[in-house]
Predict the 3D structure of the following.
Amino acid sequence: VFLSTMDYAQVAAAVITQEFIDGIQNEYLAEVISRYPDRFFVCGMCEFRKPGFLAQAKELIARGFKAIKIPAQRLLLTEGRVMLNSEEMMQMFRYMEERDVMLSIDLADGATQVPEMQEVIQECPRLRIAIGHFGMVTRPDWEEQIRCCLLRWRQGNGDGVRDYYGRGNHEEDQQEEYDVGHRGHAERFVYLCSSF
């Protein structure tokens, strides 16, 4: 039914992501990948709340998952926080970067995890990152997540970065710190948050 609805709406492909609250669904989604490889961009998900997820991520990538999803807002555990810049996480991000596997991530409110993400961006400059929910714009300090995206965007890959509108010159961007209420800038933020 879903595919026929996509066809009717002329949607060529869709992204499938995951969340801990729905349970880890890698087995079912691996079947989706094998049956419809050109219709769905599927995110695998590991059990990030305990050690051992690097091996899980490697297995998911070997099975054809094109992205790894981290519901990072769920890593602020009562028994201790799982840091995004921990040794195992950084090993995973480097592994993903080497294989051009995208990181799909939902961050905790505001700037809570931004310093960790900044370190990830610095260490893995070619890792493609999609920050979910546009930084959760209804929460305080959500703009810090967008600034984190801008850090990555301005850093570039060494081969020239172009913005959503195809411009390579960012003078306008440097003159102001992005008016987040302006439609044109909002479109650019969505691009930045979803297409590293």
Observations:
- Residues 153 and 192 are 7 Å apart (CA to CA).
- The helical segments are 2-8, 26-35, 53-62, 87-98, 114-123, 143-155, 171-175, 183-194.
